[in-house]
Write a structure and sequence with these properties.
Elements lengths: L5 E5 L7 H7 L5 E5 L2 H7 L6 E4 L6 H9 L3 E4 L8 H11 L4 E5 L6 H9 L10 E6 L2 E6 L5 E4 L5 E17 L6 E5 L9 E2 L4 E5 L2 E9 L12
Parallel strand pairs: 1-2, 1-5, 2-3, 3-4, 5-6
Antiparallel strand pairs: 6-7, 7-13, 8-12, 9-10, 9-11, 9-12, 9-13
Length: 227
């Protein structure tokens, strides 16, 4: 395993509440900018370790600036099979990282935003623990046989959204509306707007996939991250 324990990826979406992004970055993180995400790094006064993509979102002088600053630049052809964000995730996986936090994955294009939301469920990325962060909102995928720990504060909103098919055998702990071996139907809104009762809740399921969305109602406490 690398000396660094976690990769932090800056995507090319909209940056909401930048103070939360600055709080989320930890010493020792591998910082990766996915194409236009490099501009977010400059806005936050953060120098990424790696810049990856086809660079259709960056001007040549911007790319030169990162080269001169000593950033490792990995360029791909514009005709490629994966988005820049997926390239960044696969690069992190190749480098041995299992813990990944993604910032600014959502934007004005619905197709890109939806694809980015579904990336944690992509084939080949099963071994990664991917969190998507957008201001006070955080998303993480729950898989069968794995306990997903949700951390925040009492009163935070927690929604459980099935992906691709029904989620069966869903159990929760620490939520206002508990589930005990129940089914959440794909396309149904039953799992929306549950409430965290304390600083921690838990979710596990027997079949299917669940996207767990946490909306923090108050200022985040320092160090409150999901394992």
């Amino acid at each position: 395993m690398p000396a660094r324990k976690r990769a932090f990826i800056f995507a090319n979406g909209i940056l909401n509440e930048p103070e939360f992004a600055l709080e989320a970055v930890q010493p020792g993180d591998l910082l990766i900018a996915a194409d236009g995400g490099a501009r977010l790094c400059r806005q936050l006064d953060i120098l990424p370790h790696v810049l990856i993509g086809d660079f259709d979102s960056l001007e040549s002088d911007e790319l030169d600036w990162f080269h001169s600053a000593g950033v490792q630049v990995i360029q791909h052809l514009q005709r490629k099979d994966f988005t820049d964000l997926e390239l960044a995730l696969r690069y992190a996986l190749e480098q041995g990282f299992e813990q990944v936090l993604v910032l600014a994955a959502l934007g004005s294009r619905w197709d890109q935003s939806l694809a980015n939301l579904l990336l944690p469920a992509a084939n080949g990325l099963e071994g990664m623990h991917i969190r998507l962060l957008d201001g006070r909102q955080e998303m993480v995928l729950a898989r069968p046989g794995e306990e997903t720990v949700i951390r925040g504060q009492a009163g935070d909103t927690v929604s459980l959204i099935p992906l691709a098919s029904d989620a069966r055998g869903v159990h929760t702990q620490g939520l206002e509306y508990p589930l005990s071996g129940e089914r959440l139907d794909f396309g149904s809104t039953r799992g929306i707007s549950n409430v965290l009762l304390a600083d921690e809740g838990r979710v596990w399921l027997e079949e299917g996939l669940l996207m767990c969305v946490v909306i923090r109602e108050q200022t985040r406490r320092s160090g409150k991250t999901r394992k």
